[in-house]
């Protein structure tokens, strides 16, 4: 599944799922553009390390994806976008009556609207190049709901809808658009939550993971960023040329219920 000669823009990719996906795309030979809202030396160094490790072009572009013009500028600055991975996202947990309006606006802007803005610039590039892949990182919460996550659930359901619309609009071009819907994924952020969960419930590490954190995930195992990266590479391959407008769950059976 060589992606040599392709350029991938991955939003929210200086850590966690986004970085895992960028690594697998680079491993497959794609040049990569990393992104987040910071502009630190370590962000640019990370891109340099990735490029050297896989012998591909890699650079970092700062963009605050809560701002539509910056989301659009990210893709424009990339100069080329054969593969667009909309991964950036934030979360807040509260009941509807206590949910801060500012948090609602920020979650919808970063988790949903940014995908619209990046795609609006990327799709014309893909049409001109005669090839393109859009992979939106939705969530099991794009297919199921949970209490106290109104903005996140609404945004991720919106990502699924946007995915289907983009797929229909590009159906006659060699462009596909799909959504990956992860359940719980092992990332540094999740790893850091395990000790607090153990302390809160007074249980050991294995119990905290299996019976608390993964209570909804029937496999009782976290998905990995490498698995999500491999799924993304598959969706970018010719084997997936007729896979478009769909959701692929990586959730250990969560949405099978």
Strand content: 15-25%
Radius of gyration: 18 Å
Strand line-up in the sheet with most strands: 3-2-1-4-5-6-9
- The tally of beta strands, per DSSP, is 9
Relative helix content: 40-55%
Summed up, the domain count is 1
- Any idea what the shape is? globular
Following the backbone from N to C, one meets helices and strands in this order, namely: EHEHEHEHEHEEHHEHE
What is the CATH superfamily classification?
NAD(P)-binding Rossmann-like Domain
What is the CA–CA distance across the termini? 33 Å
Tell me the CATH topology: Rossmann fold
Quick one: biggest sheet?
A: 7 strands, parallel
Structural class of the secondary structure composition? Answer: alpha/beta
Count, helices: 8
CATH architecture: 3-Layer(aba) Sandwich
Spans where pLDDT lies below 50 across 5 or more residues: none
- Give the overall average pLDDT: 97
User: What is the highest CATH level, the class?
Assistant: Alpha Beta
Descriptive overview:
- The protein is built from 8 helices and 9 strands.
- Helices cover 47% and strands 16% of the residues.
- The protein has helices at residues 16-27, 41-54, 68-78, 101-129, 150-169, 188-201, 205-213, 225-236; strands spanning 7-10, 31-36, 58-62, 83-86, 132-137, 175-182, 185-186, 223-224, 247-250.
- The protein has a 7-stranded parallel β-sheet, sandwiched between helices. Strands 7-8 form a two-stranded parallel sheet.
- It is globular, with a radius of gyration of 18 Å.
- The chain has a single domain (7-184, 222-256), classed as Rossmann fold (3-Layer(aba) Sandwich), CATH 3.40.50.720.
- By secondary structure, the protein is of the alpha/beta class.
């Amino acid at each position: 599944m060589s992606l040599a000669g392709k350029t991938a823009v991955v939003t929210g990719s200086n850590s966690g799922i986004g970085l895992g996906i960028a690594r697998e795309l680079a491993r497959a030979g794609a040049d990569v553009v990393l992104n987040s809202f910071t502009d630190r030396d370590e962000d640019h160094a990370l891109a340099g390390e990735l490029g050297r490790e896989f012998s591909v072009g890699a650079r970092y572009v700062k963009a605050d994806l809560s701002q539509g013009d910056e989301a659009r500028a990210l893709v424009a600055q990339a100069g080329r976008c054969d593969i667009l991975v909309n991964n950036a996202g934030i979360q807040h947990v509260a009941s509807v009556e206590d949910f801060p309006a500012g948090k609602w606006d920020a979650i919808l802007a970063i988790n949903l609207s940014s995908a619209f803005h990046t795609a609006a610039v990327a799709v014309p590039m893909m049409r001109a190049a005669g090839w393109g892949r859009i992979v939106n990182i939705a969530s099991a919460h794009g297919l199921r709901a949970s209490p106290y996550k109104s903005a996140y659930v609404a945004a991720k359901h919106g990502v699924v809808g946007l995915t289907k619309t983009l797929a229909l609009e590009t159906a006659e071009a060699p462009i596909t658009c799909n959504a990956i819907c992860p359940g719980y994924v092992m990332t540094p952020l999740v790893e850091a939550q395990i000790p607090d969960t153990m302390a809160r419930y007074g249980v050991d590490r294995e119990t905290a993971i299996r019976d608390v954190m993964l209570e909804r995930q029937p496999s009782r195992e976290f998905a990995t960023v490498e698995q999500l990266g491999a799924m993304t590479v598959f969706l970018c391959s010719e084997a997936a040329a007729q896979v478009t407008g769909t959701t692929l769950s990586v959730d250990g059976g969560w949405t099978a219920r």
